[in-house]
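Much of what follows relies on a compact textual record of a protein's fold. A record is reproduced here so that you can trace the correspondence yourselves:
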Amino acid sequence: MSMIRDLRAAVRPALRRVPVQGGVYDATRDPSTSSAVVDCAVYRDGKRVSEHVGPAEALRRVRAEGGFAWIGLHEPAEHEFAGIAREFGLHPLAVEDAVHAHQRPKLERYDDTLFTVFKTIHYVEHAELTATSEVVETGEVMCFTGPDFIITVRHGGQGSLRALRHRLQDDPQLLAKGPSAVLHAIADQVVDGYIAVADAVQDDIDEVEIDVFSDPGKGSRRGGDAGRIYQLKREVLEFKRAVTPLIRPMQLLSERPMRLVDPDIQKYFRDVADHLARVHEQVVSFDDLLNSILQANLAQASVAQNEDMRKITSWAAIFAVPTMIAGIYGMNFDVMPELRWKYGYPAVLIVTVAICVTIHRGFKRNGWL
């Protein structure tokens, strides 16, 4: 609770106005350093009507002339976000989540603001899947959606919204729907990213599956590699943690009427929810399939060990015959069968070899060798 009290205290002080240069805005940062604000603009009738303004100026123009403001930030510090939170009346709990990140996907409403958290997923390219390969990399995009503004806070090196902003600016008819159109576009881009990652992970699973069930005589590792399977399972679990919690927020945005979501845009959320459901089913099937592959791998390893033990036992039985005969004739007795016979030595060798060959053929016929 002390952290929340400190945050409330941080957003209450009067904000010191500073000149805005090149789109940089921050009430507390040293002017010589770069700002967490990536872009800030005012949109009216679907068109961008401002360049290089700060959040406070953007809000003033929106309240005076109409339209909405879109402010994009990347990994803001607590003191950097305090001024923006005060200007736009953001709830301290949501601000704390946005600053510290590491949140599960969710949708929360604070007064006249929707707070949405998305987990972004990026597929990490690798030449070969190993027991330590990183398959997916996660980030976060958080959205504060109000009647006349949307504030996006991005964490991580992936999930840039710059290209998305340009695409929306090329479609004024859609952007004219307001902040909810931007929220939909972000959700759609995140879920499309899930689909692309799911396809790539499917290729990795296919590769592991082929390796597990391939013929060991063709140069592949017998039974595959349990370490690789387990690592892939861990990465799929991380993927699942990003997808599963987002299902409920997408259902709410697509089914429940909300004053902050344009009815026309709500129809588009249904399409996003449908794509998300398909990805969720795919990720769940990945988990089940990897469980089956891991069990098959362990079973194959057990079978391989049994085969090795049978071979070792067979050869031990074969070598036991000459060992036994040599042990018998090595005893110091005067009266033994054929001990003084001229052909005793070659006869014993022939009998020993004959018994060993007979035993070997028997094991070979039964598949032990």
